[in-house]
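Pilot study result, target chain (114 residues):
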Amino acid sequence: MFIGEAFFKIVVSGFYFGENTYLKDPWNILDFVIVLFSILTWFLEIFLGTSISFVRSFRALRALRPLRVVSTNEGMKTVVDALFHSIPALSNVILIVLLIILVFSILGIMLLVG
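Predicted structure:
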């Protein structure tokens, strides 16, 4: 179903060249990457078998499929975009928290070593 949706969007709006094409929208890029890795995993499982270890790592990318729901819901798009735009402003807070975690982890290793 995801492959069909991506195919129809590409046919309707074009793939890359143009103003409002499929790969000009970041949400469509995410959809395309998820579909591409799903197809790649499927072919690798068929032709190489499931005993290959790097095929399992591609299976982990299937966890990104719920993010496709975000691309269809406008309200969720707004929330996720706001979260991504707030990350640079929170970089100082993240650094301070990481420093505190580092200090307490070193203290824990020193006190609880035995």
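One observation from the pilot: The chain has a mean pLDDT of 79. A full batch analysis is planned for the follow-on phase.
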